[in-house]
Amino acid sequence: MSFTPLMTLKSHLNAIDTQGLRRVRHSVASVCHPHLVVDGQPLLAFNSNDYLGLASHPMVIDALKEGASLYGAGSGASHLISGHSQAHARLEASLGTILSPFLPRVRVLSFSTGYMANLGVLSAMADMAKGDITFFSDALNHASLIDGMRLTRQPCQVYAHVDTVDLSEKLQTSQSTTKVVVTDGVFSMDGDIAPLKDLLRLCEQHGAWLLVDDAHGFGVLGDSGAGVLQHFNLRSEQLIYMGTLGKAAGVSGAFIAAHEHLIEWMVQRSRPYIYTTASAPALAHALLTSLRLMCAEEGRRRRAHLQKLIQQLSAAPVPAGWTCMASTTAIQPIVIGSNEKVLQASADLKAQGIWISAIRAPTVPVNTARLRITLSASHTCEDVDRLVRALTFESIS
């Protein structure tokens, strides 16, 4: 008997189940906050990227309401037709001001998501190079960067994770006129930070661009929250910076910041930017308030509290056989190993009222399944104490 298309599909789904890789959605019935109601169950969550706790900030919520009253519910068109509102323009100008100390002659282009932003900049650069380009990608880069490079159908050399020696050797042997080193700023599953000073030095030595995806650093690192660029005090015309606005900024969207010539090229040639409806102007309006909070004293206070929580959790013990990653950021992963064990650990924690997602392949390498703990400035020291007690509880050891 031959397989029908649906039978074939079911067999693939069964294979996912056999490997312990099926993903499941859960419905949250409360605002984005550490204390949630998930599928009707009250839980203390440690799996949100709302690092500064701005998603539920009353001033940001009020600004979103105001934005909807000013601009309506949607933009109605792409940016290059009629969807580019005054709110979008103000948001891009505000981001440009924040990043101007690090990016000479900076201009900013906003996108609906970080995934679109990465596809947009990578495809535009490939179009600019007309086939004479090579990408150099850190082995642990985010999926959006990997997909963006693959979709260009241009050569890509993968260098060992944060290995500047390996990267240097690859750059030296490349014959491409256009070279682009591509890296996360803060790596989303390990929580470590790319050695950007060394990467930029290599790029300037070899005439390469350095594209940094700082989704998990923008708003969190740096005195005023300007991310890894401020953390390392970098400045170069060869830097291209991607930041997201749905994590530490607490709302939604993303942006590319770079030299004005590159941004103008993207306006002309970036298909993910040109051929999509602009995000709701109300979101951009709310983000103006979010960015003001992020860069002001309140943002500094929240970042200081977040660092205190990171140190508190980093000093805590974990069960034998588990491994804490060497991270100084809000991403604090604990590697358990097998899919079965990490799913059981996540389930046992949930039974104690704590929600931490089990991260498995292909998001992370096979046999490195982990609990990806993320901390927020909205967590209290008591919340972290409760987590530590749960992690050392007998039922999950």
Brief summary of the model shown:
With 397 residues, this protein is α/β, with parallel strands linked by helices. The chain has 15 helices and 14 strands.
Question: Can you characterise this structure?
Answer:
There is one protein chain. This protein is α/β, with parallel strands linked by helices and 397 residues long. It has two domains: 23-52 and 297-396, Aspartate Aminotransferase, domain 1 (Alpha-Beta Complex), CATH 3.90.1150.10; 58-295, Type I PLP-dependent aspartate aminotransferase-like (Major domain) (Aspartate Aminotransferase, domain 2). 43% of the residues lie in helices and 17% in strands. It contains 15 helices and 14 strands. The strands form three sheets. The chain has a seven-stranded mixed beta sheet, with helices on both faces. A hairpin with a 6-residue loop joins strand 10 and strand 11. The chain is globular, with a radius of gyration of 22 Å.
Could you list some keywords that capture this structure?
single chain, 7-stranded mixed sheet, Aspartate Aminotransferase, domain 2, alpha/beta, Aspartate Aminotransferase, domain 1, 4-stranded antiparallel sheet
Task: Give me the CATH architecture of the largest domain, please.
Answer: 3-Layer(aba) Sandwich
| Helix/strand class | alpha/beta
Q: How much helix is in the residues?
A: 40-55%
Mean of all residue-level pLDDT scores = 96
Number of helices in the DSSP assignment: 15
Uncertain runs are none
Beta-strand content: 15-25%
- What is the 3D shape? globular
Give the total of domains: 2
Q: What would you give as the CATH superfamily of the largest domain?
A: Type I PLP-dependent aspartate aminotransferase-like (Major domain)
